[in-house]
Amino acid sequence: GAVVSQHPSRVICKSGTSVKIECRSLDFQATTMFWYRQFPKQSLMLMATSNEGSKATYEQGVEKDKFLINHASLTLSTLTVTSAHPEDSSFYICSARDITSDQETQYFGPGTRLLVL
Amino acid sequence: AQSVTQLDSQVPVFEEAPVELRCNYSSSVSVYLFWYVQYPNQGLQLLLKYLSGSTLVESINGFEAEFNKSQTSFHLRKPSVHISDTAEYFCAVSGHSGGSNYKLTFGKGTLLTVNP
């Protein structure tokens, strides 16, 4: 149980294009999902909290117009990196909380590696 | 607000040796504590957690951690490591006061390298 998937696992795009990353909770419902960014050999940095049916809450310093988050259902949240630039290249990881049980615990997806050329 | 300090960025050990990965935290509210493991190019996997009750918690693969409130620590231990335990280990804390939304604050991670 408590499996979270991400798609795609890797993406390479040209500078100026937009990239959408999906995060799905496969066997549980998640009213709250989280999006993190991880630079090489560093820890995870929380970017935003995605709330089903409402606007995401962004952490200080994260551009909400740059990183668009949509949480349209209890099992799917998407992160769109708009007009991507090379400095957006990173490892993006999502997590989700099971609202029916064990809500204190976040379960993580496998991550999406984005490379912007 | 919470913060997490993992004192060792890298811990090299030999196979079958014991290991301790240190984690200290600070928080103005009561906390939940977690250890996650990350293998290369993968997401994080929950290793173990402390929510309440017994201060000693165990994982299915032989790791254990003990919550020490007075020392604000949650060190991770294993009496005998395997090559397959080589990975990055992250300690994390979340506050469980109202409105915290269970946001996690991570330490910087400790790279455990098990050598033959």
Question: Which key phrases capture this entry?
Answer:
heterodimer; A: 117 residues; mainly beta; 4-stranded antiparallel beta sheet; B: 116 residues
Short description:
The complex is a heterodimer of chains A (117) and B (116). Chain A has strands spanning 4-7, 10-13, 19-25, 32-38, 44-51, 57-58, 67-73, 76-81, 90-97, 106-108, 112-116.
Going by helix content, strand content and strand pairing, the class of chain A is mainly beta
The count of strands of chain B amounts to 12
The biggest beta sheet of chain A is recorded as:
7 strands, mixed
Cα-to-Cα separation, first versus last residue of chain B:
41 Å
| N to C succession of SSEs of chain A | EEEEEEEEEEE
What are the segments of chain A in which pLDDT stays under 50 over at least 5 consecutive residues?
Answer: none
Helix content of chain A: under 10%
Give the DSSP E fraction of chain A (strand runs of 2 or more residues).
over 45%
Q: Name the chain pair whose interface involves the most residues.
A: A-B, 23 and 22 residues
With helices defined by DSSP (H or I, 4 residues minimum), what is the helix count of chain B?
0
Overall shape of chain B: it is globular
Rg of Cα set of chain B: 14 Å
Describe the structure.
The complex is a heterodimer of chains A (117) and B (116). By secondary structure, chain A is mainly beta. Chain A has strands spanning 4-7, 10-13, 19-25, 32-38, 44-51, 57-58, 67-73, 76-81, 90-97, 106-108, 112-116. In chain A, 35% of the residues are buried. Chain B is built from no helices and twelve strands. Chain B has strands at residues 2-5, 10-14, 19-21, 24-27, 31-38, 44-50, 56-58, 64-68, 73-78, 87-95, 104-106, 110-115. Chain B starts with a strand and ends with a strand. With 116 residues, chain B is mainly β.
